[in-house]
Design brief:
Number of helices: 12
Shape: extended
Oligomer: single chain
Length: about 210
């Protein structure tokens, strides 16, 4: 049992499911490990049951019909058809999307957490106009992500941590580097039209004449 627990702890830490801050509180850490183990078991059990059902139907020469949810979707259809609603805020969902989202979040609680964390991050950038207020809210959001420990968001949180001040400069006059990126694309297209550049000084001269 102890060996199995150590293995699960190692796997959880390697995948980023458990953060370093969680390790400090052993009781919380132990519970996280047990939750992670339970999630893995449920996922494997569901997949195994589906594979067995499909194999049994194939052996009998029957067409396997997956279990349908309340709105008529199978589990795979639910995941496939929920893709676009996750790109929208809840107030822009249609009636059918609201029903589908409710079923999706009921079946996959981790998707629900990730979706609302992403909405919260977007709201910080869309509603805050003061750099100091944004700094505080970003710090709170970062702490939540660290506590949640989801590996994908840990990557985003690390990017914010590494470029904290430069990201916060957005809130000074709410401008991005979109103009610089657009101009860079024009330069690349201009260079591609010549199939490369031999004389750099002449290229810069022409570039200045065209875009200055």
């Amino acid at each position: 049992m102890k060996t199995k627990m150590i293995y699960i702890i190692g796997m959880a830490c390697m995948t980023g499911t458990l953060s370093a801050q969680t390790v400090v509180d052993y009781s919380t850490f132990e519970q996280k490990v047990l939750d992670y183990s339970q999630t893995l078991k449920q996922s494997v059990a569901q997949r195994t049951a589906m594979q067995k059902a499909m194999k049994a139907a194939k052996e009998k020469g029957e067409v396997h019909k997956a279990e349908e949810l309340e709105n008529g979707d199978t589990l795979r259809q639910l995941l496939a058809r929920s893709r676009y609603l996750l790109f929208k805020s809840p107030d822009k969902w249609t009636k059918s999307q609201k029903i589908r989202a409710e079923l999706l979040f009921k079946q996959f609680e981790d998707i629900k957490h990730v979706y609302y964390y992403s909405l919260e991050l977007g709201k910080i950038f869309s509603t805050n106009y003061d750099k100091d207020v944004a700094r505080a809210k970003l710090a709170l959001w970062y702490n939540k992500i660290e506590e949640y420990g989801y590996d994908t968001f840990t990557t985003v949180a690390n990017s914010i941590e590494n470029h904290y001040e430069r990201i916060l400069n957005f809130f000074v006059n709410r401008s991005t580097n979109a103009a610089a990126e657009a101009f860079n694309a024009k330069i690349k297209a201009f260079r591609a039209s010549f199939r490369g550049v031999v004389d750099m000084s002449f290229f810069l001269f022409r570039l200045a004449k065209v875009y200055a």
